[in-house]
Amino acid sequence: MSVNERDVGTTTEGAAWEPKIVAFLCNWCSYAGADLAGVSRVKYPANVRIIRVPCSSRVNPQFILRAFERGADGVLVAGCHPGDCHYVTGNYFTRRRLTLFKRLLEYVGFEPERLKVRWVSASEGQRFAETVKEMVDGIKHLGPQKRIARL
Amino acid sequence: MPRIGVFVCWCGSNIGGVLDCPAIAQEAASFPGVVFSTEYKYVCSDPGQKLIVDAIKEHRLERVVVASCSPRLHEETFRQVLRRSGLNPYFLEMANLREHCSWVHPDTPEQAQRKAVDLVRRAAAKAARLEPLFPGKIPVVRRCLVIGGGIAGIQTALDVADAGLEVLLVEREPTIGGNMVKLDKTFPTLDCSACISTPKMVAAAQHPNIKLYTYAQVEEITGYIGNFKARIRQKARFVDHAKCTGCGTCWTKCPVSVPDDFNLGLGERGAIHIPFPQAVPNKPVIDLAHCRRSTRGKCGACAKLCPAGAIDYEQKDEFIEAEVGAIVVATGYGLFPWEKVYGEYGYGRFPDVITGLMFERMVNASGPTSGKIQRPSSGKEPRTVVFIQCVGSRDEARGKEYCSRFCCMYTAKHAHQVLEKIPGSEVYVFYIDVRTFGKGYEEFYRRVQDEGAVYIRGRVSKVYQDGSKLIVKGADTLLGEQVEIAADMVVLATGAVPAAGAADVARMIGIPQDKDGFFQEAHPKLRPVETHTGGVFLAGTCQGPKDIPDTVSQASGAAAKVCGLLLKDELETNPLVSRVNEALCTGCLACQPVCPYRAIQPVTITERLPGQPPRERVVARVNEGLCQGCGACTVACRAGAIDLKGFTNKQLLAEVDALCL
Amino acid sequence: MKIGYYPGCSLQSSAKEYDRATRLVARHLGIQLHDINDWNCCGATAAHSMDHFLAAALPARNLIIAEEMGLDVTVPCAACYQRLRLAHRVLAENEETARDISQLIGRPYKGKVRIYSLIETIAGIGLEQLAAQVVRPLKELRVACYYGCLLVRPPGTGCDDPENPRLMDELLEAAKAETLDWGYKNECCGASLVFSERRLALHLIRNILRNAVDAGATSIACACPLCQSNLDTRQGQVNKEFGTSFAMPIFYFPQLLGLAMGLNPQDLGLGMHFVDPQRAIKAVSG
């Protein structure tokens, strides 16, 4: 049954269902990394929509919840590698806050795989593309997000 | 709802080749608030910019969305367009259709098209909620604080002072000059270190724009770029330098004799002393820990003999408060404490195992042996000298992982000096790799080999005393053999580590240290002299080991940055900073420890509510000069009282909503 | 003080005098030695170069027995000491190996046993305490303390500083001997090479003896059966091979301590040496 349920997305809504992923990228590393993916013409699935924030620590868990509430199938938060934060310590806050938040999501029965926190530097265009690819594959496997989304 | 104009750029075929730009513009016209929407081949070009200016006028646009390339590329360009049109430049929002869409999704144009529309919708949603922002103006104190009076600090101070700015140069030792002035000759040119550094020391001391504080330490830094406050402790010298003429009677007559720290214990000095004859200032201090009057309560020879009456045993530490606009940290390096970990070299038990810096003092004509190379144990001239490279450097197990950069060259120079000063002597150098990266360095290394220095590739496993000889056991990894050399003296190329107290300086100013304790520059390649704290710059080896030419270059670089900052009348602050809604703030200050810039401070405000007596309460306040706009505090605020201008909660939520339609 | 005693095979054969002296000195100092029940080979030399698992399992069995007896262990032999310490470390750090070992032996190891070299155990009673027991100060003895390789290595597992160990020196100083700072304290004695590379081993022994003589030593003290037998029994061969004339008595350090405490030289096994130690002993006895 569960297998069929996972397939619901593609069977009932047709092949058209594509996961929608909202990405919060820090301006200094990850947004620049995504820019580099573009400059280097590294291709990745078009499912991701990017919002620029100054630092990953600007990302309030509320924003993530809001995205899920509005039907996002996945949320990616990406910042500088620990130790390389443009604002010295911002990504450490991100790491702690979102680890906790992810546990909370898991606790209330939400698939934690839908929220990813990744470190992508300004020189890691390839890594950004791979992160998106990996996420899209994972979420396609999970199917549409319906737990939090207001239907 | 403000009136929004959308401009979709083709970027030639970069965007237009994948996406249907007219269709995007057409769809954008239906987004809330959008009153005008168009597309153009190159929006960033002159006619493209004119298109925006004209549309703003014609359609009375209040917000502008440019859907083109990355804002990291052209945000500033389009902000200027808005400014020219009389709009607040922060009324601009960009949609990144090129780097984030057309360039990465050329194979799925339909999906890319949908994504592009989403991205423009996001930008329009944010644009509708943009607020006018105004950079603040802060005055600049045209004075620079330089911490550390080594060659880096001196060079920075001179360059800044020559540009007409005031400099406070603070040095904790009784003389400026740092490590460089201890050196004998400098590689690869063999010019005398003192001959090239002492004139600079004198120039710094005599420069009308430089105020010199020796035997002094910076104890506290507050404030922010352009407006720092520094508290300097002038340690008591027990000699009134205003009266002292530097005649030298006192230090020649002092009955005390203790190991001389300037000469790394190779010589002796009195309790009242100057570090070396060319010290700047050339006036003594009393080392109270060893002063006989202080330890035994009886002596006072210096006071009796001083013709100027300058000795003042009751002198106290003094404090100086100074306002400065910029800070240059040039605290230098120290030597790796090899005695603690290198047991195989004797833990410092063998007097004839010395460090490279000790060798420098020894071979220096003004040093404790008047330039004679001699074994500390017997005072005799060594015949066989072994040099061991990478003691503390490139040795993860015991020392540091990094290369200290200057040891290969100073060892080559030492080898040359032994061979030159002691005819018939034998010199062996144990090395891992020889790194001669600088101008003329490789040539010098070759020359030293030609002069007879024997380079052995391999580590030394053990040094032990055997009668009057030091037996050096090691491996020659090129021959695959064990080597044993009976040496008269062993010189260790001890690696460089941050100067003692570097961690305190880092904490005081708020600059991060790397894993080895060196100060972290803002960018390893493109911002090597800046730190992440505005107005604080780095010069010299406090940032990482480097030789004299590199140190001087970086010092001049830091000086240029200081001048660039201080020669402005006032500073424009970044308006994208946090703000506190004081009505919502409960004064819990959960935001305060989150801030890496110490920009949030509690203030007491008087609140007047209608029908109630005024009451005082504490709220958080953001210092806009210090805030760098990361927004970490906004998430920490339980009451939602802090918001980040330019990235407000409302704007971000609207963006999320727009993307999830 | 009560402590488990792991003598090891050498102390039952070639180093009988080490065992005797150890037991006598321990009794004299009030240290109760309890032999580990049914102890087995520590796995030195053969096992650890052939089979890493066995090299940990063999000493582990001894540790498990000691744990069951509720005792810490003192080890006179440097090789045994090193094997037991390393096994303890493997058991603590490698869960998988620890599991396999306890399955093999049939009992688990909780990791409670602390392993001491004999030097540490004697030093543990206190140097002043030890000095108080001295009735015949070793004043005339200029002794080079020889630690060898296994007692202090690898760093972190040894009983003292790997480059400049001092503990044996301190014990003998407490017995009023004059100890020497010399360069071969922790060099290899060549024990593992005597059969395969005889000349090389003799060369190593010669270096140690020569360095001790140059430093002014009249005797060498050691804490390892292999070091002692190598330096003692092969001194004649060294002299023959290199034309030297060494006559350096090689003591086990508890023999010297026993001597200082007034114990009978014969009981301490001082008649069992190849190089006659009588001159050194007479010098002490005055």
Q: From the structure provided, what is the oligomeric state, counting identical versus distinct chains? A: heterotrimer
End-to-end distance of chain C: 33 Å
Cα separation of the termini of chain B: 19 Å
Strand content of chain B: 15-25%
Average pLDDT of chain C, rounded to a whole number, is: 93
Features:
heterotrimer, A: alpha/beta, 44% helix, B: 661 residues, alpha/beta, FAD/NAD(P)-binding domain, five-stranded parallel beta sheet, 34 strands, 25% strand
List the helices and strands and how they pair.
The complex is a heterotrimer of chains A (151), B (661) and C (286).
Chain A: H1 2-12, E1 21-26, H2 30-39, E2 48-53, H3 61-69, E3 74-79, H4 90-107, E4 115-119, H5 125-142
Parallel strand pairs in A: 1-2, 1-3, 3-4
Helix pairs in contact in A: 2-5
Chain B: E1 4-9, H1 13-16, H2 21-28, E2 34-40, H3 46-58, E3 63-68, H4 71-84, E4 92-96, H5 98-102, H6 109-128, E5 137-139, E6 143-147, H7 151-162, E7 166-170, E8 185-186, E9 191-192, H8 193-206, E10 210-213, E11 216-224, E12 227-234, H9 249-253, E13 258-259, E14 268-269, E15 272-273, E16 285-286, H10 292-295, H11 301-305, E17 318-324, E18 326-329, E19 333-335, E20 353-355, H12 356-363, E21 384-391, H13 407-421, E22 426-431, H14 441-450, E23 454-457, E24 460-466, E25 469-476, E26 481-487, E27 489-494, E28 496-498, H15 502-509, E29 536-538, H16 548-566, E30 570-572, E31 578-580, E32 600-607, E33 615-622, H17 632-636, E34 642-644, H18 649-659
Parallel strand pairs in B: 1-2, 1-3, 3-4, 6-7, 6-18, 7-10, 18-29, 20-27, 21-22, 21-27, 22-23
Antiparallel strand pairs in B: 5-30, 8-9, 11-12, 12-17, 13-14, 15-16, 19-28, 24-25, 25-26, 31-34, 32-33
Chain C: E1 2-5, H1 16-28, E2 32-35, H2 46-50, H3 52-69, E3 73-75, H4 78-93, H5 95-105, E4 115-117, H6 118-123, H7 127-132, E5 142-146, H8 167-174, E6 178-179, H9 198-214, E7 219-222, H10 225-233, H11 235-242, E8 250-252, H12 253-260, H13 278-285
Parallel strand pairs in C: 1-2, 1-3, 3-4, 5-6, 5-7, 7-8
